[in-house]
């Protein structure tokens, strides 16, 4: 992390004030939202920061949040519990509350990663074909239609040219959404920020022609493989299963070296 990273918008947005062992105060900030509701990945990044401190391990290996209620900008409290600390990994859980409302329950395993994949077996099925960022499209308001959410002022997004048509009423018909992302203020993305980056794109079901409205997340899991190198992150999200009023969304995130840094899955409520 940069020596001046405490001055970045993201670091201020996930800042914690320790109350005692396993308890922190946080401030859920405005502007990290879709349709007025703070982004679920942003909330998970706040919890990730707390559990990094609790476990003494710098990187989430796997972290999951179950969302029980919608958050709102304002004060929040985190309570954490260390479940196990082994030689390589430590596992802990946390509860995020606002007043008497439990917003999310979080469980994660933490360890030490590097920017270079370890030697030995490495397999990748193949990354999607994504044009470079300069050939992709920044979300922009359209007359009488799509308005980019506030989070896009803090996370710079460039969508695949064929995936941006949903914003002007021309979805391409497949539940895919790919592109590039980085912080707008050029802060390097670390593993603490990956939960946010795994949840900052428009839902891929928008390219199936559904209404451009909120798609509430019930559960979000992020698996982290390495620390990203500074620069753009390639991201690709798909939805293969929609049934019973719910949908699943799978994502893959890679850095500019072409290495996968994280994969994600979430379950969400299909808009009516």
In quaternary terms, these chains amount to: single chain
Low-confidence stretches: 1-5
Specify the CATH homologous superfamily.
Answer: Acyl-CoA thioesterase, double hotdog domain
The CATH class assignment is Mainly Beta
Query: Structural class of the secondary structure composition?
Result: mainly beta
| CATH T-level fold name | Porin
Rounded to the nearest angstrom, the distance between the terminal CA atoms is 42 Å
What does this structure look like?
With 272 residues, the protein is mainly beta. The chain has a single domain (5-113, 130-269), classed as Porin (Beta Barrel), CATH 2.40.160.210. Helix content is 9%, strand content 38%. Strands 1, 2, 5, 6, 7, 8, 9, 10, 11, 12, 13, 14 and 15 form a 13-stranded antiparallel sheet that branches. Strands 3-4 form a two-stranded antiparallel ribbon. The longest helix is centred in the first third of the chain and has 16 residues, at 40-55. It is globular and about 50 Å long. The N and C termini lie far apart (42 Å). 42% of the residues are buried.
Fold topology:
Layout: H1 9-13, E1 16-20, E2 23-28, E3 33-34, E4 37-38, H2 40-55, E5 59-67, E6 74-85, E7 90-98, E8 101-111, E9 155-159, E10 176-183, H3 194-197, E11 217-224, E12 233-238, E13 242-243, E14 246-254, E15 260-269
Antiparallel strand pairs: 1-2, 2-6, 3-4, 5-8, 5-11, 6-7, 7-8, 9-10, 10-12, 11-15, 12-14, 13-14, 14-15
